[in-house]
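Summary of Year 1 activities. Much of the first year was spent building the evaluation harness for sequence design. The harness presents a backbone, in tokenized form, and records the residue chosen at every position. We chose the following record to illustrate the format because it has been used consistently in internal testing since the harness was completed.
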């Protein structure tokens, strides 16, 4: 009887462990202009253009309780986030960006590529993106 319970517990542990892990999946809400993390709060987000001349590195603050990061008026719209690096307060017009989320260190980094129009409004180019070579 004891061996059976131990065997069941050993089989159940990986299921519980894997089920409790959150990924880093993100997406863009183009209408409301925010990046949203699907599972959990945004704690580590990077936004950069291809040549690195426009770059934002954002960390969730100590009391960060949001899974959204707004792309317009970034500093005012995201008071719970700490800007480690910020090239202005909004994305540049007519520019393509790579957005990466690595909020959960145990999961693979998620990348999406977005582009901005002449007004700086973002739309998704590729949701299943790979990282640009550094």
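For this record, the design step produced the sequence shown next.
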């Amino acid at each position: 009887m004891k061996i059976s319970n131990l065997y069941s517990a050993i089989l159940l542990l990986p299921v519980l462990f894997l089920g409790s892990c959150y990924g880093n999946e993100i997406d863009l809400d183009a209408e409301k202009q925010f990046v949203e993390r699907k599972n959990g709060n945004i704690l580590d987000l990077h936004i950069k253009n291809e040549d690195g001349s426009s770059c934002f590195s954002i960390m969730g603050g100590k009391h960060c309780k949001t899974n959204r990061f707004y792309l317009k008026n970034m500093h005012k719209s995201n008071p719970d986030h700490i800007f480690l690096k910020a090239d202005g307060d909004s994305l540049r017009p007519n520019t393509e960006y790579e957005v990466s989320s690595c909020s959960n260190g145990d999961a693979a980094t998620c990348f999406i590529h977005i582009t901005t129009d002449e007004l700086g409004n973002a739309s998704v180019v590729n949701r299943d993106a790979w990282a640009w070579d550094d």
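The beta strands are 26-29, 34-37, 44-49, 55-60, 68-70, 81-86, 96-101, 110-116, 122-126. Quantitative recovery figures across the full test set are reported in Table 2.
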